[in-house]
Structures are given as structure tokens and as C-alpha cells.
Amino acid sequence: MQMRTLTLAILAATTPLLAQAYDLPAVNLGFTSFLDGAPPAGNGWYFTQYIQQYHADKFKDNSGDSLALPKPKVDVTVSLSQILYISDINVAGANLGLDVIVPVVSPHTSYGASNSAFPKAGESGVGDLLIGPFLQWAPIMGEQGPKFMHRVELQFILPTGEYSSKSEINPGSNTWSFNPYWSGTYFFTPEWTASVRAHYLWNGKNDDPNRGFEALGARTTRAGQAFHTNFAMEYAFTPQLRLGINGYYLKQTTDTQMNGDDVKGRREQVLALGLGGVYSFSKENHLMFNFYDEMAVKNRTEGERYNLRFVHHF
């Protein structure tokens, strides 16, 4: 077993361009930020529309150095349409709810020279469906209003998205994932808050590996587990406008597997920091905007994200 694992590591190291890129499925990096511990208007139905633009011009290796690719560019536009419902059903002192998200993803890659071994983007299309039951606890109140609010969701990512083994970057991942999270918001004052959402990711097997793994003799792959979190702090300058800082962090915690064996040197990592805000048109309608600049990247692309999120309560 040790010799087989060593052979896989050597193969991966000697096929760097095809082997490198995007083991983990797409997850929530920066989509959520401010006041994340509870929806803004209590129980009932919500519709949220997200638009995120990601641009990168670097592919980083396991040491955090840029791969020798000629003028690489990666652009991904993501649209998420979310329906969320919080019921009056009480479970463990919290209200039971359901969250459903449908992504549409448009990826694109380009380079300053042509080489079929460079990481390739697949066709645009519908991404993997996200669905999860959750428990939303009522806010803990203080003398001046809410002090703390939080939620737990058991989120599943289903392999319903467009996927091609001929590409490393696809709308779908061709595997199921379990990505539960806890989210909370703390009010230092009515104007000043901090929020955190912490996920842990488990992934199933992909029985149709992408061409990079196929070149290494893969019949199946399994992306490693990962911890990822979004965090934000903001201040209400007016009753309608809150501005602050936001960020995200992802750290892969176990190795990617190929044919059941660990492949070393592929664990992903990224930290991003930026600025953002919330504008509340009313209690039922809110617009959030975020900018993120990535750093401390390993085995991923490094770039910037721009995010818009509109929330409506029916």
C-alpha cells in the first residue's frame, strides 16, 4: 500500500498541469456575510438572489507559488436563486426551516498560449442543487434589542449540475457532498455587529474523474474534507446603511483520494479579506454587496470576488 501511494504521488508530481486544479466542489465562499445569524424579518418565506463574479490570474501550487502558465485567466459568473422557509414548528426550542438553492454557473479560462494540458473550463449550465433543513433560534434579547442570534443547517449538495470529465472546472462536481454549518451574529451594540458562518465539508466518490486524474489511471476520485468559514463585522452609519469588513477562509483537512488511496500535496487553502455593506430599503428588502481579495492560497487559483445579494421577505 505504501509503494502504491508513493507511485501515485510521483505520477501527480510529474503531470503538474493536468493534475492541478479544483478537487473540492464549489462551496459558499463569500456569498453570505453581514447579519448572518437570522433572516431579517422573522418567520415565513424568503427569496434571495445572489450574483457573484470571480476573476483570477494565478494558479498556485502546494507551496503557494504560481504555476508556470502563460497569462492565465479564470472568470466564473455564478447566479444563485434561493428559496428559504421558516415555519412555526418548534424543535429543540428553535423554528424548523428549509433552504433550497439552485446555482447557474458560467466558467471561462484563457491563456497566452495554446496547450491542451492547461486547466480547462466546461460549458455553462445549472450547478449542483443545495438543500438543507435548518433550525433557527429566536434572538437573545438585551436592553437595547437583540444581542445574539444563530442557526444550524444540515446542508446537502446533490450531483445535479452540468459536468464533463474533459474539463477541470465545471458547474457541477459529479458527486454528493454534506456541508453542514453553524451561523451566528453578535450585537456589541445595536449598530455594531459581528457574524460568522462555519461549514465542514464531506465529499462522496466521483466515478467519472476529470481528464487530469484519468491521465494518472484514476477510476474513482474523492475530494478531501475541508473547513470553510465566512466572517464579517459592520457598523450602522444610518438606519438603512451598514458598512464593514468581510472575509472567508478555506482549509482542506484530509487528502484527496484516487482509487481509494491518498494523493499527497493537493490540499487546498485560501484566505480572503475585503469590504462590503448592507442597504435596507425596508424590513422586507435588503441589498448586500461585498468585495474579496484572496491571499495565502495553495492548490487553487488566486483572485478577487465581487458579490451582490438581494433578500426579499414575502
UniProtKB/TrEMBL annotation:
Entry keyword set: Signal
Originating organism: Methylophilus aquaticus
Leader sequence residues: 1-21
A Pfam family matched in the record: Phenol_MetA_deg
Superkingdom of origin organism: Bacteria
Protein name, as recorded: Transporter
